[in-house]
Amino acid sequence: MEKVAIITGASRGIGREIAKTLAKKGIKIVANYNKSEKEAKELKEELQKEGYKIEIFKADVSKKAECKDLAKYTLEKYKKIDILINNAGIDKYQLITEVSQEDWNEIINTNLYSAFCMCQEVLQNMIHNKNGCIINISSMWGIVGASTEIVYSISKAGLDGLTKSLAKEVGPSNIRVNSIAPGFIETDMNKEISNQEKIDIINNIPLEKLGKTEDIAKCVNWLIEDNYTTGQIISINGGWVIT
Ligand code: NAD
Question: Of 16, 23, 143, 203, which one is least surrounded by beta carbons within 10 A?
Answer without folding.
Answer: 203
